[in-house]
Amino acid sequence: MSVQYYFLSTAILPIYSHLVHFYSSLISDSVKFDFSQPHGPGSMDHSIAQVRRYPEIKLYRDESNAHGHAGMIVHPEKRILYIANPGKGTIVAVHIDTGSYSRTAREEYPIFSNPLPSFEYSIYECVDQDDVFASGLNNPSGLALSLDGTRLFVAERGGRILALEVDSGLVLQSIDVGYTSIGGLAVSPETGGLYFVDMDTNQVVKVEASLDNGGECTYQSLVDTNFKTSLEAAQLQVVLECGEDSFSLNRDYSCEVVSTIPNGTLFEQVHTDTGYASDDPNVQASAGMDEQAALLENRTDCEYDSELNFDALLLGGYYCHVCLPRNQGSSCDAGGTCSNQQWDGFSCDNHYYIDYNEDLFDNPSLSISSLYYNKTFPEGSKIELSRGVTYRFTVRTGDQKPVHITTSPVAVVSTAVTRSAVVGSGTSNGPILLTVDETTPDCLYLTSPRCSSVPLVIEGGKGCPDSMVSGDNGWELRPASSSTRHLVSFGGYTVLLVVGLFALVV
Prior knowledge:
Blueprint: E1 2-5, E2 19-24, E3 29-34, E4 49-54, E5 72-74, E6 80-85, E7 90-95, E8 100-104, E9 119-125, E10 129-134, E11 140-145, E12 151-156, E13 160-165, E14 171-176, E15 182-187, E16 194-198, E17 203-207, H1 225-242, H2 291-295, H3 310-315, H4 325-328, E18 338-341, E19 345-348, E20 351-358, E21 364-370, E22 375-376, E23 383-385, E24 389-395, E25 404-406, E26 430-436, E27 443-447, E28 454-458, E29 476-490, E30 493-505
Parallel strand pairs: 4-9, 20-24, 23-28
Antiparallel strand pairs: 1-26, 2-3, 3-4, 5-6, 6-7, 7-10, 8-9, 11-12, 12-13, 13-14, 15-16, 16-17, 18-19, 20-21, 21-22, 24-26, 25-27, 27-28, 29-30
């Protein structure tokens, strides 16, 4: 049995869950997608969405490597999109809240999917950008931001990783990691650790921080303090005289938007040969179910040379399908079964959500729900789990309300457990992964302070004790003489967990 607790920082999560930025290397410009309404199975509705093209943001791929990676990352506070530009050896910085509507994109870029005006397909111009935020790079690929937002990590495909100062764009430090095909970079939201993908070796590699200064990163800023002070004073003066959003070092004040009146016939054409494969009006209706799209559900001709249109499969809302890789495309955890959900993508039968309920009488309880089964389990329910399956419990209880998985119906609340040894500390925001195998006891419990525990019955386990309410300070757990030892893995740590009988002391 293994239990893994993960912690997520909501500060770095995207504000708009349906909004993504995309770099089109074939056309060499940047595109912003806001698919305001996700598809449901059997429907290809695209009537409510925004697709904005930014042709002034010129991006170039590495022609010598057709399968290279060009990273993008948005600074959550500065609202700047950093883009790797491999063909030019530069980093482009784009202020994503700038730019003005110019004209419809339906004429210059005729690949679109809905004739209704509510489908916004447009060209934006005069965006604020620094097309050379950083230069002199050798095929830049992955990008990632430090947790405090002060450093931008840049990977060069050939094996070097650089740390740039966000305020100056200058290099603070660089290291050679010894790999020759670096792709994406990522920073752990919990530890701040840096990870990268090497494409040729198919590995995810962690960059260990130096033990100097206790592993803390310290550096001298390269920003000229006199320049910074003068800049802030000038910005304040311009804002006072000209209003908000009137000062930018990266704005082309001579830029003029080229506007045209759209031709009405452009709203009548819907392409039929580039992936959507239907001009049936039902496909474009929000409540319509297209017959051909619905038939995709039962297709099993998954071979690479079959006539199955995989683009139409995904656009038809089938994120769970036998022809998709990684557990039918759903990426359910091991042993899980997926199901398509109207307007919600897909769900897994081994995925549960844990919330915190608090009534008027201050009697809190854990609320367990499942999107797959479309239900919230009544209080007092027992959740049945199968061996050979990894279960995901997404905890949404909030701060100071940690959830644990224990072998006792009383929560294990310990202030002596360090955060790295997360077996006892639980989590209040993020997933808990529980792998149920032949060593797993017949009874486990979801527990949280002041809440009745929720029994997890393993493969028809018998005689699970009734749940008990755990107190903040009134009870003490003491290990009894009989105990069982389990090795629990988490993030590279191996923790010895002593599990067994506990004596309840009042």
